[in-house]
Specification:
The structure holds 2 protein chains of 2 kinds.
Chain A (H helix, E strand, L loop, with lengths): L3 E6 L3 H12 L4 E6 L2 H11 L3 E5 L7 H10 L8 E5 L4 H9 L4 E4 L7 H14 L1
Parallel strand pairs in A: 1-2, 1-3, 3-4, 4-5
Helix pairs in contact in A: 2-3
Chain B lengths: L1 H12 L11 H9 L5 E6 L4 E4 L1 H7 L3 H4 L11 H15 L7 H9 L4 E8 L5 E12 L5 E10 H9 L1 H15 L3 E5 L5 E4 L1 H7 L20 H13 L4 E3 L5 E4 L5 E13 L2 E10 L1 H36 L8 H31 L8 E4 H18 L3 E4 L7 E4 L1 H18 L5 E9 L2 E7 L22 H6 L6 H11 L3 E6 L5 E8 L1 H15 L2 E5 L3 H13 L3 E5 L2 H10 L4 E5 L7 H9 L8 E5 L1 E2 L2 H4 L7 E9 L3 H12 L8 E5 L3 H11 L4 E5 L2 H10 L4 E5 L6 H8 L10 E6 L4 H12 L3 E2 H21 L4
Parallel strand pairs in B: 13-15, 19-20, 19-21, 21-22, 23-29, 24-28, 25-26, 25-27, 27-28
Antiparallel strand pairs in B: 1-2, 1-5, 3-4, 4-5, 6-7, 6-11, 8-10, 9-10, 10-11, 12-14, 15-16, 16-18, 17-18, 22-24
Helix pairs in contact in B: 5-6, 11-12, 12-16, 13-14, 14-16, 17-27, 22-23, 24-25, 25-26
Classes of the chains: A alpha/beta, B alpha/beta.
């Protein structure tokens, strides 16, 4: 059974570690972290994850820009992307979704249920 | 001489910096005494002149040395006048007064303020009519030691009095000019009639570039309609309106840049015509500092959130034993750290919410909401928290279903805050009860707990930010001190009220009152009636137009009339209308041409267009149902599908939370498929290809829009025009197709069908009110006030 590959792009190393540990609670997940949008683009094209967790506020290349670049590349265009961001207003969530995000996970997140949240975001992609 | 005076004055003041001159009586006295325009004469108690100032020398021609210690002022007056005054005073006070200095000083000596007009005789013998004010000078024991006479040129005084109005006007002009707020006065046609300096400065125009020009040159194009509405609102219902007080308003400078402003509109009646005074305040500084504050809050909350995410995440993993089971003592400490990290998260979220609410960035999307099911969902969402506190939540059995107009997410947030407060303050084992009831036209949601209740001294402050009854106690409960403040902010924005009372038997009851749906709609419609309702009447018969316009005015509408098609097109290009009424009984017979022509104007793309043929005998027709048609668009076949989709799209947009339903009646199966495909995602499209099927669909369903090809089967297609009504008999908004090539037989049939659209004026007004309010709601709903 192939594992579920999640690429996590966030410039905060501590948060990357917490996300890796949280998702690691579910043995089926394989997690890889990147500290910038640019690295994330390369990793996504090469590793072909099942889902990308993407921080919105990053220096140099922010989340929405990274998402747009992922969509430009046919190799990565189909990968579902979930934004991680501060408390978002319903309208902001709509906005992120209109950019093509599959979902939004609020920061701070509950580490004990993060794996389940990510899994629920993957359902539509698996079904389709 | 004058130059000398000035030199002397400045000599006195010399030696100290100008702005450091103290209020030195000596300097003041010198300045007054040196005034060349006043004849100042001081005498001793007997009237012998002791002081004769420069003004007196100049005005009367005597040198001080000619008069001081030598004569009294009555000696240099017209003796006849002095005698006359002495006689008048003798009569007035019933005591003999000698025609000398007494005649001048009698009143002053009695402590009566006195001003008289007498003529001085100059040294050269010429006359100097003067207005003199005389005061008695007294020592510490109030004994009279002398008199002070201040005289001015009587003629000058008269001139000033005569010109008081001019002076007042000039004073007023100067006040307006030097006012630090911009002022623009516009007339009924919104042409500028007056501006002040500040407007020139703020907008970069010279005043001659503004006077007699439309005020629109100062308003950005996108805001002109809104501005015009407010302006109209002020003139129909004169009351002061503030633009920009709660919403952003902008001015347009000559250089094309925009200026954030607050505008107050004040109706002023001048010479029988109603003008509007716009008081314009530059709020760019305020905007900048608000922006800085918002940015600061956003940055701080992000900067705090990033480390907090790591901390709360790490603690959460430890507390969840993700790193192995911890010894009991460590686990206890960890729980403290973890719950407090959670509290910090809540605090940050609350601060962000408050900031968004206060800055007006929180966008409220109003919908029709059934309160009971929303409350049930909120209870479910909080059940876990309640169970953790060993508290039960129960919905009162009598809670009934009521509809309110609110933003569901915000309302859930407000109820959640009340619920979690109630849970936090309930002793374990108790229950929290939510009730829903109606009070008048408000719906009350109340949350009752069995906690300690609200301490009396805290009651006045309970909705303040960071207010907690007992700091230590509340902190134990993990509150942020912002929950109730957020509830209040939300409920205020929902046009509701929040309150609390002591519960019988202990505990507190907090309640939120929201206007029920019907009341909210009425309030909306009143708001709308006040500010928006300008309609265009396309009526070629001037007499009919006058009757109708009178009636529309009485009902609070503003109505413009267009007698010809060209005039109608010009009108819609120049002003904005809430509705257009088209009488199709036109001499040129081309009513449909007019509809098409009007609908081609982008300004009224979405404006209500009512086709009417008004029966002007109201008594005759009161009971007959309205047969008005509400024609959204009239398209030529073959159909421009893109335009059709656009029209329908706009018609179904903002339909609240219900899915709009479209009835499409057409014999062209391909077009039926295209329309269903294009709109299927947004609306439920029912496609039928015959009149009978259309009738069955109408009987069984409610439709928001109908699309009809009248050429479907000629004759009965027209009949259907008038059958497209909802259960209340109101016309369903209609998009009509008809063949483009004007076949005269067909055109006659169209006319015949449309002319069936007859109504009384009462019906028309009722329809307008209802339709305009309905239409106004979606656009007003997304107010980011």
């Amino acid at each position: 059974m192939s594992s579920l590959r999640v690429l996590h792009i966030d410039d905060e190393p501590d948060i990357r570690e917490i996300v890796a540990a949280s998702l690691g609670l579910d043995p089926e997940f394989a997690v890889r972290g990147c500290d910038s949008g640019a690295d994330g683009l390369a990793a996504a094209a090469q590793w072909r994850p099942d889902l990308i967790l993407l921080d919105i506020m990053m220096p140099v290349m922010d989340g929405p820009t990274t998402l747009a670049r992922l969509r430009e590349n046919p190799q990565t265009a189909g990968i579902p992307v979930v934004f991680m961001t501060a408390r978002a207003q319903p309208r902001e969530i709509d906005h992120f979704k209109s950019l093509g995000a599959a979902g939004v996970i609020s920061k701070p997140f509950d580490p004990m249920t993060l794996a389940a949240s990510v899994r629920s975001q993957m359902q539509p992609a698996n079904a389709g | 001489m004058i130059a000398d005076d000035e030199a002397r004055t400045s000599e006195v003041a010399a030696g100290m910096p100008r702005n450091a001159v103290p209020l030195n009586t000596e300097i003041l006295q010198t300045a007054i005494l040196n005034s060349a325009d006043f004849a100042i004469i001081a005498t001793d108690a007997e009237g012998v002149i002791q002081l004769f100032n420069i003004g007196a020398e100049r005005l009367l021609g005597y040198a001080a040395s000619d008069v001081v210690n030598k004569i009294n002022p009555s000696d240099i007056h017209d003796p006849h006048e002095v005698i006359a005054r002495a006689e008048a005073l003798s009569a007035e006070f019933a005591t003999p007064i000698t025609p000398g200095f007494d005649a001048l000083a009698f009143k002053a000596s009695r402590g009566i303020e006195d001003k008289y007009e007498l003529t001085y005789i100059r040294k050269d013998g010429s006359r100097f009519p003067a207005l003199v004010s005389i005061t008695a000078l007294r020592d510490d024991q109030a004994e009279i030691i002398g008199y002070l006479l201040i005289g001015t040129n009587d003629a000058a005084a008269h001139l000033i009095a005569a010109n008081k109005e001019i002076v007042a006007a000039e004073m007023f002009r100067l006040a307006v000019e030097s006012c630090t707020n911009g002022m623009v006065i516009v007339d009924g046609a919104r042409k500028i009639v007056l501006v002040n300096n500040e407007i020139e400065r703020l907008f970069g125009y010279r005043r001659d570039e503004l006077i007699d020009h439309p005020v629109d040159i100062l308003v950005p194009a996108r805001l002109r309609t809104e501005y015009a509405r407010h302006c109209d609102a002020v003139t129909i219902r004169p009351e002061t309106v503030r633009l920009g007080a709660s919403l952003d308003f902008f001015g347009l400078r000559k250089d094309g840049t925009e200026l954030p402003v607050e505008v107050g509109l004040n109706p002023i009646l001048v010479g029988g015509s109603l003008l509007v005074l716009n008081v314009v305040v530059d709020i760019s500084h305020r905007k900048r500092s608000e922006h800085l504050k918002d940015e600061f809050v956003a940055t701080v909350s992000h900067e705090l959130r990033t480390p907090l995410t790591s901390i709360a995440g790490a603690l959460g993993l430890l507390a969840g034993n993700a790193a192995g089971k911890l010894p009991e003592a460590a686990a206890r400490l960890l729980t403290i750290a973890y719950t407090n990290s959670q509290r910090l998260v809540r605090l940050l979220n609350d601060i962000l919410d408050i900031e968004k609410m206060e800055s007006g960035k929180a966008i409220f999307e109003f919908k029709r909401i059934e309160v009971r099911s929303l409350v049930e969902q909120t209870i479910e969402a909080n059940r876990g928290f309640a169970e953790g506190c060993n508290v039960r939540i129960r919905l009162d059995a009598e809670a009934a279903a009521f509809d309110v107009r609110a933003d569901p997410d915000r309302l859930v947030q407000a109820i959640t805050n009340l619920l979690s407060n109630a849970i936090k303050f309930s002793p374990p084992g108790e229950e929290v009860v939510i009730a829903i009831e109606t009070r008048g036209d408000m719906v009350r949601i109340s949350v009752r707990d069995h906690g300690p209740g609200v301490p009396n001294e805290f009651k006045p402050h309970i909705f303040e930010k960071f207010a907690q009854a007992d700091g230590t106690d509340a902190r134990k409960k993990g509150g942020t001190g912002l929950g109730l403040s957020i509830v209040k902010q939300i409920v205020d924005r929902l046009d509701g009220a929040v309150g609390f009372e002591d519960a019988p038997g202990g505990g507190a009851i907090f309640h939120v009152d929201l206007p029920n749906w019907a009341r909210a709609i009425r309030a909306q419609s009143r708001l709308f009636m006040k500010s928006h309702l300008r309609v265009l009447l396309c009526e070629d018969d001037p007499e009919a137009a006058i009757v109708l316009v009178d009636r529309l005015h009485q009902e609070g509408f503003l109505a413009d009339v267009a007698l010809t098609a060209n005039e109608a097109v010009a009108r819609v290009a120049a002003a904005s209308y809430a509705a257009i009424l088209v009488d199709l009984q036109r001499p040129d017979g081309d009513g449909i041409g007019l509809i098409k022509q009007l609908r081609a104007q982008p300004q009224i793309y979405n404006t209500l267009l009512v086709v009417l043929s008004v029966d002007l005998d109201p008594a005759h027709d009161k009971e007959r149902p309205s047969t008005l048609l509400n024609i959204v668009d009239w398209l030529d076949t073959p159909i421009d599908v893109a335009r059709l989709v656009r029209v329908l799209d706009r018609q179904v947009a903002g339909n609240g939370n219900t899915r709009p339903r479209i009835l499409h009646v057409d014999s062209n199966p391909e077009l039926l498929r295209v329309v269903a495909g294009a709109l299927g995602a947004k609306a439920e499209v029912m496609s039928v290809d015959s009149i009978d099927k259309a009738r069955r669909a109408l009987a069984a369903n409610r439709f928001d829009v109908a699309v009809l090809d009248v050429a479907l089967t000629v004759g009965s297609g027209f009949d259907l025009l008038h059958e497209l009504r909802d259960s209340e008999g109101d016309a369903i908004p209609l998009v009509v197709f008809s063949p483009a090539n004007d076949n005269p037989v067909f055109a006659a049939q169209v006319r015949g069908a449309l002319i069936k659209s007859r109504t009384s004026i009462d019906n028309l007004i009722a329809t307008l009110r209802k339709r305009l309010v309905d239409i106004s709601l979606p656009s007003n709903d997304k107010d980011a006030a």
